[in-house]
Write a structure and sequence with these properties.
heterodimer; A: 67% helix; globular; B: Rossmann fold; Ubiquitin-like (UB roll); 6-stranded antiparallel β-sheet
Chain lengths: 293, 364
């Protein structure tokens, strides 16, 4: 078991001005593993829109924050999320150039983050504020998932063994490390606005299954739209578990256990993942190092 | 870019052309769920709290090199202070209103006092001179933190490079490396031996861990050569470097060709304003006019007015501080906005400015 007491804490969060060159990225950047590639590729579809929604929501929450330190953390979080959105969008452009038009699925993602969870003008002030807290609770739940995924990708030796594209691995691990680095911010902001157990867990009950459902339809979409795959290619559960056994995708049982921990009354994100490991990766990441110049 | 509330869901991805059923369900669910769950406002029920800043007293002051003093700061009533890890710093709020960051250079296990070391820089912004002149034993000072912008990940093999006063965050890292039994080396560079702060503590560390601490003064060994310093790194080692800008730049340039595997340096938030001229801002909603001095950014001035002003990188690349300019000539200094965004009046207030004496009307 990891010891949080032995970890760096109180980190100053700062976005890193990373850049990635996708010119040489093959369609199946985990060689010979189109399904595992596309399960991970769903990230590039969900994140730009989702993380910009995080940014808008947290910007709206700034005036409600009365703690200077938390405000600084939230500002660092916003900047990191803005850069994550940009970095994944670069991959989308590349997919499009290789003949995979992500448009139809992107319109679904846009609908979720702009219509279902978007601005609702005309709410009376107390409802507007409660709606904001509700969205922060959803983000805190999603951030638990992204911290789990970040921790997974930092440790996913299976991707190295399979010869995954090094630039894509650096994008995923840089992003994963920053997710681990800032994993407490959304939770701490939620506790600042509503310390209750009910809203936090209720939001996870909704965010978790919706995320899984969006992920499945995203993988189905990408495999059907991939010009390099035979027509009517579909992801299968058996294919997923086989890839997970090889360490190319997260183990579903570990994911379920991690989600379960979010419902513990004494939960805090610092108990998940390792700040030390995230910091160590950011020291080796070619993109993060280049951004420090 | 909110969708209108009556926007219909897009078409299903598969099967017959019709609205996507899952998205239609999600829309109805969200509308009903939010109508129920936003009836009460938890923020109103639990007013948000904030932690007060720390008020500390200078309990000891000692010279640790030419122009360098080390200060011990403790709570007046002797209560334990918030814990910290190597690489952490404090924000010192000086009596003049200046805020300066200083790395903690004491022992993290000492819970009742912090220690910082400050070099007097007469040509600097005045903060270090104020520390030297006013923070004598018994003086009170307000601090925020500790925060960590230079976290130590305690990799198995570590090379610690310090230039001059940059040894302050490095010294606690060396102690932690020794405590954990890591393979570590520390190199401290400076102009002369007499200018190197905390030399006695490094000598004591060297006595306990022979061969791990190296001191090199320019007047004995010539100016440091980053490639040579890094060449001594154990293969794959993580390098932690803190020192003056030229040392950091040289280490970064030499890093790729070295045997080292990771590079960590302190991450500074806002670079100083270069070649700025004073100008002013006019806020549309309130009509307030704010003046921006030559050495401050528009963002600093807006944050002083409203602490909830959004910003993040403070270097002009993340785009979080984007503001719409209604009138006035903008001097763009960011790396992000497209020509179309600039033409539409967008401005990143963390770095961009206006010509001397100009007034920018902001949509705030």
């Amino acid at each position: 078991m990891r010891q949080p007491a032995d970890e760096p804490d109180g980190l100053v969060l700062q976005p890193r001005d990373v850049a990635f060159d996708w010119a040489g990225l093959p369609m199946h950047w985990i060689p010979g593993e189109p399904m595992a590639t596309h399960v991970v590729n769903v990230l590039h579809l969900l994140l730009p829109e989702g993380e910009r929604w995080f940014v808008r929501t947290f910007q709206e929450a700034l005036p409600l924050i009365t703690d200077d330190e938390l405000r600084e953390q939230v500002l660092g979080f916003i900047g990191q999320e803005a850069l994550h959105a940009d970095a994944h969008e670069g991959v989308l452009d590349h997919l499009h150039a290789r003949g995979l038009d992500p448009g139809p699925y992107l319109r679904h993602v846009e609908f979720v983050f702009r219509r279902v969870l978007g601005e609702r003008p005309g709410l009376p002030p107390h409802r507007a504020r409660a709606y904001l807290t509700e969205r922060v609770a959803l983000i805190a739940g999603i951030e638990h998932v992204t911290a789990f995924l970040g921790d997974w990708v930092l440790n996913a030796r299976g991707l190295d063994r399979a010869g995954a594209d090094p630039t894509m691995l650096d994008l995923l691990r840089w992003h994963g490390a920053e997710e681990v680095e800032h994993r407490s911010v959304a939770y701490d902001l939620l506790r600042h606005l509503d310390p209750g157990y009910v809203r936090r867990t209720r939001a996870m009950f909704i965010a978790g299954p919706v995320l899984v459902r969006l992920w499945i339809s995203g993988t189905r979409f990408l495999m059907a739209a991939d010009p390099e795959l035979p027509a009517r290619s579909r992801p299968t559960w058996r294919g997923y578990t086989a890839a997970a056994r090889r360490g190319l995708l997260p183990d579903p049982r570990r994911a379920a256990r991690s989600a379960g921990r979010y419902f513990r009354p004494g939960y805090h994100p610092t108990h998940e993942g390792s700040t030390r490991q995230a910091v160590a990766y950011l020291g080796t990441s070619p993109a993060a190092r280049a951004a420090a110049h | 870019m909110p969708s209108r509330p009556d926007t219909p869901p897009p078409a299903a991805l598969f099967g017959r052309p019709r609205q996507d059923r899952f998205l239609r369900f999600l829309t109805h669910f969200a509308d009903r769920y939010l109508a129920l769950t936003t009836r009460t406002d938890p923020t109103g029920r639990h007013p948000a709290t904030s932690r007060p800043p720390l008020r500390l007293t200078v309990t000891d002051r000692r010279a640790v090199a030419e122009d360098v003093v080390a200060l011990r700061l403790a709570a007046a009533d002797g209560t334990p202070l918030p814990p910290w890890r190597p690489g952490a710093h404090l924000d010192l709020r000086l009596p003049s209103g200046r805020t300066r960051q200083y790395s903690l250079c004491g022992d993290p296990a000492e819970r009742h006092a912090y220690r910082i070391a400050v070099r007097r820089l007469p040509g600097g912004g005045g903060g270090s001179v104020e520390v030297h002149d006013t923070l004598t034993p018994g003086a009170r000072v307000t601090v925020a933190g500790p925060r960590n912008a230079f976290p130590f990940a305690a990799q198995d093999r570590v090379l610690l490079l310090a230039g001059g006063i940059g040894v302050t965050p490095i010294l606690p890292m060396a102690h932690e490396a020794a405590r954990r039994g890591l393979d570590w080396r520390l190199v401290h560079c400076g102009r002369t031996r007499a200018s190197l702060p905390l030399a006695d503590e490094l000598a004591a560390l060297d006595a306990r861990h022979p061969g791990r601490v190296h001191v090199r003064a320019d007047d004995e060994h010539g100016p440091p050569d980053a490639a040579r310093l890094l060449a001594d790194a154990p293969p794959g080692a993580a390098v932690y470097c803190c020192g003056p800008g030229p040392l950091l730049d040289a280490v970064r340039a030499a890093f790729e060709a070295s045997p080292a595997g990771a590079l960590h340096a302190e991450r500074f938030t806002a670079p100083p304003v270069v070649d700025g001229r004073p100008f002013s801002l006019r806020l549309r909603r309130s009509g307030t006019v704010l003046s921006v001095p030559a050495d401050r950014t528009a963002l600093d001035v807006l944050r002083a007015e409203d602490p909830a002003t959004a910003s993040s990188c403070r270097q002009g690349f993340c785009g979080v501080c984007r503001v719409r300019v209604l009138a006035g000539p903008v001097e763009h200094r960011d790396r992000r906005l497209t020509p179309a965004e600039r033409a539409a009046g967008d401005m990143l207030v963390c770095v961009s400015r206006a010509p001397e004496g100009a007034c920018l009307e902001l949509d705030l």
